[in-house]
Amino acid sequence: MKQFFGLLMALGLVFGTLVSDAQPAVANMLNGGTVFLAEANLPRNAVDDKLATEYGYKLDVNNTNVAAFRKYRGLFPTIAGKIIRNAPYENLEDILEIPGLSDVEKSRIQENMDIFTISPPNPALVEGDDRYNNGAYK
Fold it and tell me: Where is the signal peptide, in residue numbers (predicted)?
């Protein structure tokens, strides 16, 4: 009985692969070709599109979460929290106008201005408490 269900599952998997929307990509892969994302016609969302821009390489002060600041010495957690709590910003220089920033904090922000970028807030990235605690722990 177990063998029958195993065979049935294998046949279902093979049949499903052959008749799916990704058939051209799978056929190309099976023939030794390379599968490109565009060939597979996979759906994309606004976050994927944003990651393909400068946002994927810099900290977007209107959309990033506090954990993204961890890789930059001197910015996490205090300065990162202040930047996140006071967003959104119209331009990058507005970060230096955050109320209560000390001279040392302003200096650290100025030293790191090249790692920041800015774009309009995206609800998929800023809703809820994900900016403060996105649950990604390393």
Answer: 1-22
